[in-house]
Amino acid sequence: MGPLDVAVRFGLYLDLAVTFGVPFLALLAPGIRGALPLGRIALATAITGLVLSMCGLMALAASMTGEPISEIDYETLAMILAMPVGMAWIVRMVGLAAVAFAATALRRQPAAFLAIASAGGAVALSTLAWNGHGAMDEAMTGWVHLGADIAHLIAAGAWTGAIACLLALVLRPADAFDAPALRATHRALHGFGVIGTIIVAVILVTGLINSWLLVGPANVAALFTTLYGQLLLAKLALFAAMLGFAAANRYRLTPALADRIETGDHLAALVGLRTSLALEAGCVLLVLALVAWLGTLEPVASMR
């Protein structure tokens, strides 16, 4: 699999994470619903996901047949769609269609729109597990690995979407931050601090399961001598940095914003939050790029 496949995978990971994570956070934090154009965001990410999924299907067909994308025929696509990865692709398209429907037909019913959009986004995001290593194992190990992959994707999507939402909130123009807007922003930041603890726990547990199955305790030394292992270590280092930024947001920067809302001296607190969330978002992009690359490589456990 070449750079095109990695690029499409990266685009799908990012787009579907936002497709699920943004409405999911808005569903849990009602205070941000009027601050962001959630309907337009959902529609844009759903359409982008549909286009990227079509590109991904063509890239998969090309990698399986060795033929250029321009020469892929209907019979090849029909064969892939009959496979588990193809069925997952169909489910993804249905999930994205549900998001697009909710974004266009239910904007005046925020609770229904957000519930359907987050559910459709979760379904679409979870189908990416069939494009990764979690779908390669058999019997009970296969189900455990696939389930851990899906839970890992959902938790990572919730974190990614939340960072996108929170960064958009704090990057609004200065004249948008009157006292009510600042309080709503603080509630969103504080609320995600509680949810984030659960998300991190799920990512850690599912990450350990995946590492056990893809690397194994007997192959830890190979992490330093193989491309797969080196990329995995880089991903772990970025994840540790994200934890550091998240801790700073929750325990230092968010309380600082709360302390300065009523005094009107909130600019420095907002600048700190903007910087921290932007750095955290940068780490997310790098992690997703590494995940897209890792998905095309042979795991360490398979090399032995």
Main sheet attributes: strand count, strand direction, barrel closure: none
Rounded average pLDDT: 87
Number of strands: 0
| CA radius of gyration | 20 Å
Tell me the fraction of residues in β-strands, as a range: under 5%
The total tally of domains equals: 2
Structural class: mainly alpha
Distance between the termini: 21 Å
Shape: globular
Order of helix and strand elements from N to C terminus: HHHHHHHHH
Which parts are unreliable, with pLDDT below 50 for 5 consecutive residues or more? none
Membrane topology: Multi-pass membrane protein
Protein name: Putative copper resistance protein D
Subcellular location: Cell membrane
Transmembrane segments: 6-29, 41-64, 76-99, 111-130, 150-171, 192-215, 227-246, 267-294
Structure explained in plain terms:
With 304 residues, the protein is mostly helical. The protein has two domains: 1-131, no CATH class; 137-304. It is built from nine helices and no strands.
